Amino acid sequence: MKKGKRRFSFIFLVAMAFPVFLVGGLALKHPVLFERENVWAVGVYEGKSPLEVMESRSINNPLITASDVTDIKASFVADPFLFRKDSVWYMFFEVLNSLDGKGDIGMAVSADGRNWKYSQIVLDEEFHLSYPYVFEHNGQIYMIPESASAKHLRLYRAVDFPYRWEFAWKLLDGEFGDHAIFRYDEMWWLFAGSDPYKNTTLRLYYAEDLRDIWKEHPESPVVKDDADIARPAGRVIMDGGKIYRLAQDCDPSYGRSVNAFEITELSKTRFAESPWESNPVLDRGRSGWTAHGMHHLDAHRAENGKWIASIDGYVRRFIIKINY
Predict the structure, then answer these.
(1) ∠178-49-232 over CA atoms, to 5°?
(2) 108 pLDDT exceeds 50?
């Protein structure tokens, strides 16, 4: 072996061994933990229909990541919902705060739905928030975030849209996770996951007015013991006279993909649904920022007749933590 090659081999071995010695040396004095974490980000897809959206070459996904959040230290962003007002697109989403480990609600703005700029945190409570389902009724803009740790499902109203929100009233008591509210046949309908840590049960409620006492449907829970289809995955889609609910596939792992179910019968006494024939609506990619899963879709019709949808996805990474 030539002298130059021997020197290169020695340097290579030292470089490879250094991290091992470093971690090993630290482990003698401090516990070293190897942990796995899912890093979520949000983006936008486009398509000819709300259930047929896909990556677009004109959109540089992911559009918002934790590094774009400027007012707090963030671990990830997820659960994006869209709202359009005065020709401006707004995106509301969970921002996981790295310092206290709870979710806050962040907001980004876009003039065209393709290019986005992070704005700020718009809702911060003492408990965890995520999944900010934003909608409008009779000129008032509302938000229903996931607030299971508060032990009730809360409705907020915008007092200075999009920056300031105030708590309006409780919709349901209990630990409810992701949800989906919609108006149909002069009634309000509300899907809500009632076991947010298992993702196996979906309940259905109805009311004539948002402020009414919500009644549980006689056929509720409409999904039992099935993590494949129970947990809501975004806004209910109403298109062409059909109604679709979106569901996360959480088996065998959380947030793998999104499936759609057409609601074929809905009244105060009856409920029926069937799977969309082309499921999944969203599935994890082979690589990139959605390589390990996707679990959310919020589709809206754009001015050009196409559909725009906010989506999220994640990649899994392993980290080393040293406890001093």
Answers:
(1) 10
(2) yes
Altogether, the residues listed in the chain come to a count of 324
Confidence (pTM): 0.88
What's the first-to-final CA gap in the chain, in angstroms? 44
Which has the closest alpha carbon to 81: 39, 123, 37?
Answer: 123
CATH homologous superfamily of domain 37-322? Glycosyl hydrolase domain; family 43 (2.115.10.20)
Q: Is 41 exposed, middle or buried (0-12, 13-18, 19+ CB in 10 A)?
A: buried
Enter the tokens of residue 233: 């995955």
The string over 273-288, giving b where at least 16 C-beta atoms fall within 10 Å of a residue's C-beta and e elsewhere, is beebeebbbbebeeee
Summarize pLDDT for 159-216 with one digit per residue, the tens.
999 999 999 999 999 999 999 999 999 999 999 999 988 999 999 999 999 999 999 9
Q: Cβ neighbours of residue 235 under 8 Å, at least 6 residues apart?
A: 81, 133, 135, 180, 182, 246, 297, 298, 299
Q: At a CB cut-off of 8 Å and minimum separation 6, what does 221 contact? A: 194, 201, 202, 203, 204
Q: SS3 breakdown of the chain: % helix, strand, coil, rounded to 5?
A: 10, 50, 40
Q: What is the dihedral of CA 85, 187, 165, 132, to 10 degrees?
A: -80
